[in-house]
Write a structure and sequence with these properties.
The two termini are 31 Å apart. Helix content is 43%, strand content 14%. The chain is built from ten helices and eight strands. Helix 1 links the parallel strand 1 and strand 2. About 5% of the residues have low confidence. The protein is α/β, with parallel strands linked by helices and 306 residues long. It has a single domain, classed as NAD(P)-binding Rossmann-like Domain (Rossmann fold). Pfam families: adh_short (PF00106).
């Protein structure tokens, strides 16, 4: 990878259609904006219509001639995921960026009864990718990028307790959901290869980037001291969202990206230009990936048919 790779190095995206989940703020907003700047038509898949429309207007102000549209998507509700896929108006999809996520929230459940972090971060995107896969395969060079985290290294999956029903620890649950992202990419890449598909499945992570993820959990619980500490960390230690989005943009657009690759910041995985990232060995375990895949199909009702 080029040491100084930046958004300026994104190849021309004219004629390509992209979906970015969670595109209303942070990494997702920057990702959507820079893809639009390079000519892609970008679907802003967001839970909040108000925030999605605000992001659409902001990108139109910042990028002359941008082609963006808001579409409602709530990853915590599989009926919303199905509705998004069924109403998707484009015959092909060149790029799906599974960016949206939640982090270290108090215990809660999705509309379908899944533990919230596992449900949103993994199962929602698993279902979305499966439902949109025919459109990705119809594209000449389809690509799926799932945004994980360096914090995946805190914990392997507990396949006997995917929904943290026995014991809930917010950071371990987050780490497991991010491990699930990497195992999903690992198994999807394997299945695509076996099916002879040219769709590339890859992963990325932003390092320590200043977004609203860090403060959301503390704010929900009214833990003001923890919220202020997270805000201070964002100001003093984190890189801006513009830099944090670079690994995702690289994984999404660089010609040399390989299936099942994991891209992150160059400097200790925290900040800097994108490069190949270290990953826990359990995220490359074929047996675990297969078992997670089977469980995910059963939980979501979405079958890939590869």
């Amino acid at each position: 990878m080029t040491q100084g790779w930046s958004a300026r190095d994104i190849p021309d995206q004219s004629g390509r259609t992209a979906v970015v989940t969670g595109a209303n703020s942070g990494i997702g907003l920057v990702t959507a904006r820079e893809l639009a700047r390079k000519g892609a038509h970008v679907v802003l898949a967001c839970r909040s219509e108000a925030r999605g429309k605000e992001a659409e207007a902001l990108i139109n102000r910042q990028v002359y001639g941008a082609s963006v549209e808001f579409a409602p998507l709530d990853l915590a509700d599989l009926s919303s995921v199905r509705a998004f896929a069924e109403s998707f108006p484009h015959a092909h999809l060149d790029l799906l960026i599974n960016n949206a996520g939640v982090m270290a929230l108090p215990y809660g459940k999705t509309a379908d009864g899944f533990e919230r972090q596992f449900g949103v971060n993994h199962l929602g995107h698993f279902a979305l990718t499966g439902l949109l896969l025919p459109r990705l395969r119809a594209a000449p060079a389809g690509r799926v990028v799932s945004v994980s985290s360096g914090l995946h290294a805190l914990s392997d999956l507990d396949l006997a307790d995917l929904n943290s029903e026995r014991r809930y620890r917010r950071w371990i649950a987050y780490a497991r959901s991010k491990t699930a992202n990497l195992l999903f990419v690992h198994e999807l890449a394997r299945q695509l290869r076996s099916a002879g598909s040219t769709v590339v499945a890859a992963a990325a992570h932003p390092g320590y980037a200043s977004t609203n993820l860090q403060t959301a959990g503390a704010r929900m619980e009214g833990r003001r001291a923890a919220e202020r500490l997270a805000e201070l960390g964002n100001r003093l230690l984190a890189q801006p969202a513009e830099t944090g989005a670079l690994p995702t943009l690289y994984a999404a657009t660089a010609p040399s990206v390989r299936p099942d690759s994991f891209t992150g910041p160059r400097l200790q995985g925290w900040r800097g230009a994108p490069t190949r990232s270290a990953r826990a060995k359990w995220t490359l375990n074929d047996a675990t990936g297969e078992r997670l895949w089977v469980a995910s199909e059963e939980l979501t009702g979405v079958r890939y048919g590869l």
